[in-house]
Amino acid sequence: MKILFLSSEATGLIKTGGLADVARALPLALCQKGHDVRIVLPNYLSIARTQNYSPAIPSLGVSMGDSKLFCAVQQTRLEKLPVYLIEYHDFFLRNHPYEDVAGNPHPDNGERFGFFCKAALQLCLAENFIPDIVHVNDWQGALACLYLHQYRTTYSEFAGTRSLMTIHNGGYQGHCSASARSFLEIGDDWFRAAGFEDHGQINLLKGGLRAADQLNAVSVGYAEELRTPLGGHGLHEYYEARKEAFSGILNGCEYEVWNPSTDPFLTTSYDLGNLSGKIQCKSALQAEMGLKEVPEVPLIGIVSRLTRQKGFDFSLPAIAKVLSKKVQFAILGSGERWIVEKIARLSEMNPEKLQFHNGYNEALAHRIEAGSDFFLMPSLYEPCGLNQMYSLRYGTLPIVRAVGGLRDTVWERDVSGGDGTGFLFTEPNADDTLAAIERGIDCFTNDSASFQNRICLGMRQRFSWKNTATQYEKVYSKALKSPIN
Ligand code: ADP
User: Fold this and answer.
1) pTM value?
2) What is the Å distance from ligand 1's center to 206 Cα?
């Protein structure tokens, strides 16, 4: 198949979250299966500053409402994958892809990503690459599904092309002013409740839910939750309305990067057959974080964006309580100030038990995964989650809330009541979080057979991208066989 993969970020070029990892790994896995996949990204300031690329199209005309804008298209590669970079300085030459310095969305995000979507389709004509599938990701790509309807009627080449929209995080929807409608060509028939209209504004993700031929979320659990009032971020009925075309496909894990036997960031390597290296990783981590090097004290790691989504409202009170016990925490994260301040305060009050590195640090993230006994991920919602998969591979037991992708990848008991791979809780409150942490600590302290068994079970789990790519192939085939939505 020919697949055009639209993403607003991709690891190796620009990354703000998990979407970037998917936008690299999934196209690579599809390419390995023999598909012709091409990625399209905006050419942001940080890419323009750091990457080598060559011109693909010096000037590409893109009609937006009554205007015609001209952009350049640059070409680079992610390993062997061709990547097109849409270059339009007024829209993309900015420090952050989505936000200003104060963390507010750029006010012209609708125009920026609408233009990106239209330019992506237009470049297919210029490059004579007519895709079978236009695969878009989150609100940033939603308008490509609308424009594909136009292109199918205007250009016969596109008659057989179908779209898939993947939801990586339904909490971000791309709201913008209705004044952008004419530029974005959102006509009256699309600006209604079952479409882009949301309380008089444009909601790009919502419109994509109607315009896309097929839809999926990044785990089965999250796809189910999106269809419920509690989990749908206000759009549950629109997911429900498309349930025949809506599925869940769990992301894979990049085991070439996240492998304790080959990880270059670790001082000592280890694997299932030889776990002694993990004990050394623990003391190295304790030393690096400024914690006492005591093997008998359970060490709990956190690597996270510091946002409400990650459950800090209720997990921080639970952490404060559990600090009365023999326990250590190694926390790495960056994000919202109120969370940074609360964690820093906990650390100041309990320096021998909790150490916090405020920032983004890939190497330390690997060492926390390897050196911790537990990894805490108590998310309010979690579309898929990657860190719990890394933890399993590194023999670090995840303590997670049973939501979205977390409940698809971690279990506490098997069907016959035997050991699972981690510890789970259901309700988003401090008491349940605390109880799950305490069950983990109890297992560590009093039941080393069960603790070791859980480590081994977890380390044997595999969430391969190859398997994930096979599931995407099935959805693509379904889209190609279905009539236009
Ligand atoms: P999300 O995409 O919601 O942030 P995921 O668990 O899906 O959550 O993916 C987060 C990714 O970002 C992981 O690869 C994780 O290791 C990485 N990450 C998050 N915060 C940091 C940090 N402060 N330093 C290093 N890596 C981080």
Assistant:
1) 0.94
2) 26
